[in-house]
Design a protein that fits this description.
It is a single chain. Helix 16 links the parallel strand 23 and strand 24. By secondary structure, the protein is of the alpha+beta class. 37% of the residues lie in helices and 27% in strands. It starts with 10 loop residues before the first strand and ends with a helix. It folds into four domains: 135 residues, PAS domain (Beta-Lactamase, 2-Layer Sandwich); 111 residues, PAS domain (Beta-Lactamase); 157 residues, Histidine kinase-like ATPase, C-terminal domain (Heat Shock Protein 90); 118 residues, 3-Layer(aba) Sandwich (Rossmann fold). The longest helix has 46 residues. It is built from 18 helices and 25 strands.
Length: 645
Amino acid sequence: MSSPYSNTRLLQRIERPNAKTQPILVVDGERTQPPSVMDFFALCESHPLPMWVLDGDSLGFIAVNAASVENYGFAREDYPEMSVGRICPGLDPRILRDGGTIRARVRTQGGGELGADLHASAAYLNERSTILVVVHHLSELETSDLRARELETIIDAAQVVIVLCDPDGRIRLWNQRAAGLYGWTAEESLGLQATGLYQSGCGDIAGAHQAVREHGAWNGDLKLTTKTGLSVDVNSRWTAILDDRGLLRGILMVDTDLGNQKAIEEHALRSQRLESIGTLASGIAHDLNNILTPILMSVGILRTRPIDSESMKLINAIEGSAERGAGIVRQVLTFARGVAGDRMILQPRHLVNELIKILSQSFPKNIAVRTQTPKDLWMVSGDATQIHQVLLNLCVNARDAMPEGGSMLLVADNVVLDAAVQEAAPEAKPGAYVMLQVTDTGSGIAPEIIKRMYDPFFTTKEVGKGTGLGLSTARGIVKNHGGFMLAESAVGQGTTFKVFFPASLTGESPLKKGNAPEIPRGNGELILVVDDEAPVRAAATRTLEGHGYQVYTAEDGADALALYFQRRSQIQLVLTDYTMEQMDGMQLAQALKRLDPHVRIIVSSGQCGEDKVAAFRARGVNAFLDKPYKPEAMLQMIYEELQRE
């Protein structure tokens, strides 16, 4: 069919003149001198089809002809204030700059819409870049086809399965989500019986059809079979489509994948559980730190007394266990709240040797444990307790994989990795690493489990024998240290975990054996110790009095404030806990600073994050003592604060 305006003399374009030629107007393929601007607009005005002149840069309306006013109902003065997007909803007006024909919908002033082809051409008027748009309205059939294609696009973009059937249940429409979930393409699905997709016994299909015919809708859970034979659980909503006489023309089925919905719900539940663990860990950390602090303080007091060698071994064991417990508390806080541990330059070989002692005493005798560590192993920068926890977790998992016995190998080695490592671990960076490897001869890990083994709370162990936080925590620790993990496993042949920590090639460990530094003593200064735990107050008092200080104690912030108000001329330093019920350390510090801006304050806490530290610093408090602390750390910090001007 020929174009309805092929015999009409149309303005096609006005060529841009150059320095040597005059502007040329091209009309129906014939070149002629351009008319005046008034003649140009007169040509548009008399044209029977709607015509728009747009600014080539802003794409705003410059002028429209009478046919535009007549067809769309907008006044001429309305157009300069309108955008093309208002009159052509959903159209990106920038494509008009490319010229050609664009199919779109044109909206009238009354809210109606007309299907149309927009024929755009570039033109120049008095050296001004413009775009001429000629609008050809579509027939009713063409408009219906346009709307149908737009509706099809919307249906295909939906994130739920949409299936349209005729009254007999044969599929007439099948969107892309349905194709992706069930495996059949839209072409393959046409004409299939939709009820044939549902598995027998998964629901009353006949009852669903009857409910749709009688009540116009049905909703329920069904099980469907995909093209490959897999089962999919869905929530299906059926709606009857009726004609003007109320007769059934079809059934619209909208299915929601319950597996995906359950995954979202499980993810939300895991997030809630993690948040709950963070809150619980903070409370547990506070209580454990208050328990461990007097233990470490008492160990320091016992060391100052004459004692036999066997008793000293017991004291050392108590101190080591308390320090390990404090380290585990910090590790839990690191996982739950992101609290950073203390980093130092350390030798991983010492951690491996220490771990071997623990394994030899606690692992079954039918598991043989061997190690391979070079003497020139590089140093790493990290938290010793956290790295120890990573290795211990991997070793415990290896033990559990060998219930009938086997062998375990711990390897430490220096490795230099190039860019090829990123194929196995995209987060890895080329460079020098210390590799710590744990290999067992156990049952191995199935491929489907390897994909999920780092997920929080995922565990293959029985209830009560594992939380599913081990590998997730270990991976988080390694990542926070700038490293990465790799795993290799085969069912029935064992598993190998390789942990890579960036090597510190220039640093040396600051922990060198030698004579312990002399603990500074006081000179009768009066220290106010504030803590809601009586054992902590008692241990701090014994330690301070034993090193030349005088001590006042208070069990909460309110008592401390009253005591300081009475004795502020004598009290030279306040050592306060952060978490207390009546008045916490933050409130106490703020009140003390109002009484005396020069008061010296040390805040002790096991969970004082960066935000709280910043808040204390804003109030003039700059000394922080991490719980649980040894007496040496407390005495050294008090001495330094008293010496500070």
